[in-house]
Amino acid sequence: METDFLKNNILTLVEKSNSKEITLQAICDFLKQEIDYYDWVGFYFINGDKEELKLAQFAGEPTEHTIIPFGKGICGQVAVSNQNFVVQDVESQDNYISCGWKVKSEIVIPIFVDGKNIGQIDIDSHTVNPFSKQDELLLEFVCEQVAKIV
Ligand code: SME
User: Concatenated DSSP letters for 84-122?
Assistant: First the structure.
């Protein structure tokens, strides 16, 4: 993984941002394009004062899971745990919401603003066991940058 190249491009997108929506979409498109095992990249945010996540920008196939209650699925669990969740094989998870038979693994990293978990980046992969610590570090960086514009 070319971490410096990826981080520099994310930084540039955020620094040049004058529209949250356009920038989040550009980040999704960029990560999906540059990392071959990122097959779906999206942002979920807490939906107002409801205990649920709402899908925002994404790159990849549309999903019917545009609203996810807290505690449900990998995303909903991260909304309450405030922890990274790396699933190298979705078959190992009981509390998992499938977005299609092709998805084999998933990584979800929370986004914090002023210490509060306000949403997350979610990556689905069609490959089993694709994620390393480098993915977590890269995506934590992405979330820190996103926190500046949301
Ligand atoms: N698999 C997720 C649902 C969202 S999709 O991956 C886009 C989950 O279990 O929360």
Answer: -EEES-GGG-SS---S-TT--EEEEEEEEETTEEEEEEE
Kindly state if the Cβ of 96 falls inside 6 Å of ligand 1.
yes
- Predicted structure pTM score: 0.97
Residue 1 confidence (pLDDT): 86
The total of structural domains in the chain comes to 1
User: Is the sign of the CA dihedral 93, 96, 100, 103 positive or negative?
Assistant: negative
Q: Which of 18, 20, 29, 44 is nearest to 99 (CA)?
A: 44
CATH number of the domain that 143 lies in?
3.30.450.40
Spacing, Cα 49 to ligand 1 middle (Å):
21
| Domain that includes residue 44, residue range | 3-147
